[in-house]
KilA-N DNA-binding domain-containing protein (Flavobacterium limnosediminis JC2902), 87 residues
Amino acid sequence: MPFAFTEQGIAMLSSVLNSEKAIEVNISIIRAFVTFRQFSLTYNELKDRIIEIENQFPDIYKALNYLVEKDKTIEENTNRPQIGYKK
């Protein structure tokens, strides 16, 4: 399992560590958590906007999906193990 801190864990750690560098690093990590939280709150807005754009251009969206899926199926077919006689 990876080692990770929560936002509250970083806040508790900043109360224990007293060096200037540790305080600066903890502040930057807290800011990263705040930025990530703000992004996650606006993620639903972004998702809704993408769905709205997809609905405006359904033909283009279907064509793009077809091309992406076609590449995936070609890759799956070329990466499969061969059966039968080996030379």
In short: The radius of gyration is 24 Å. The chain is about 80% helix and 0% strand.
